[in-house]
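Appendix C: a fully annotated inverse folding record. The material below is reproduced so that readers can follow the format used throughout the book. The structure is listed first as tokens, followed by the designed sequence.
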């Protein structure tokens, strides 16, 4: 059993102010029973956030920054796509908001977007992508799989990196990105006058006014079952929404609930002799703890106190 917990901490001032008030007794006890692994060191400007790097490793992938082939893995789930070689990406419909000095990505994926709306836009956009040698396939409402040579070796920023942020540092910047930037601009113009957005705005929903590329890359000979980890791994989303909205009071409440449920269940599993692992991920770094045979000093350490959980979270 392996829990990966994104947004376990942030270096933002708001998060740092509530960290001292966190009371996570089950996590504290669990970490005293497990052995820490080396920290996966990164920074807040990496294309791939720490939790995606951690998940990639559990799947046997080498997490090259911005080129974890999530879309290629997703394509393997479709029998009609699994045999297609080469690179893939996700094309996700989203909403950009223009301000006085910057453009920010305000919603991805789009909320309240029906399958019918998604299919309508897919049919409209397909010919434009085809002109650049890109083939689009439906995946989920508001998100499509795209196959094309242009995505080989192209770093792309995870939606979790760009949501709510100035888009300029996160735009595709590889040598072949020029055609994609042009395509993004063409889709903005297409969406600006699309009747579907009139209907969305009439019911109070944000208009779909842009697309985002992410999850780029190819599997490059990896087996088709790469996406099946050897042990149950769960990416826990409980802290994500509050962290991205920088609502640190709600984030702290979510942490307390997470400690009382999922973390307690993991601790109980460990106490029953199950093999367990936990990975805590911040904006920059990630660290895992897992069960290994302990030395005598490690066994008695809990009786003499242990490093406060606050210091473990602060280092993420």
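Designed amino acids, in order:
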């Amino acid at each position: 059993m392996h829990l990966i917990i994104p947004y376990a901490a942030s270096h933002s001032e708001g998060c740092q102010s509530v960290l001292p008030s966190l009371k996570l007794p089950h996590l504290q006890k669990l970490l005293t029973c497990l052995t820490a692994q080396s920290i996966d060191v990164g920074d807040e400007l990496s294309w791939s956030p720490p939790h995606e790097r951690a998940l990639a490793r559990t799947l046997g992938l080498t997490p090259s920054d911005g080129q974890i082939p999530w879309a290629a893995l997703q394509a393997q789930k479709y029998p009609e796509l699994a045999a297609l070689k080469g690179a893939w990406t996700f094309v996700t419909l989203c909403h950009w908001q223009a301000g006085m000095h910057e453009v920010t990505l305000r919603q991805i994926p789009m909320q309240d977007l029906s399958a019918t709306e998604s299919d309508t836009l897919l049919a409209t956009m397909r010919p434009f992508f085809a002109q650049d040698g890109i083939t689009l396939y439906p995946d989920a409402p508001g998100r499509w799989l795209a196959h094309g040579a242009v995505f080989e070796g192209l770093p792309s920023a995870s939606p979790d990196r760009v949501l709510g942020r100035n888009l300029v540092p996160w735009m595709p910047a590889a040598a072949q990105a020029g055609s994609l930037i042009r395509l993004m601009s063409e889709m903005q113009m297409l969406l600006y006058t699309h009747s579907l957005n009139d209907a969305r705005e009439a019911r109070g929903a944000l208009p779909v006014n842009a697309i985002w590329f992410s999850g780029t890359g190819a599997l490059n000979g990896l087996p088709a079952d790469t996406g099946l980890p050897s042990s149950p791994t769960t990416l826990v989303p409980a802290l994500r929404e509050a962290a991205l909205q920088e609502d640190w009071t709600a984030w702290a409440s979510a942490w307390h609930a997470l400690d009382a449920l999922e973390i307690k269940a993991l601790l109980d599993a460990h106490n029953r002799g199950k093999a367990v692992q936990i990975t805590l991920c911040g904006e920059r770094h990630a660290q895992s703890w897992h069960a290994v045979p302990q030395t005598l000093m490690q066994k008695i350490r809990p009786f003499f106190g242990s490093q406060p959980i606050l210091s473990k979270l602060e280092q993420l």
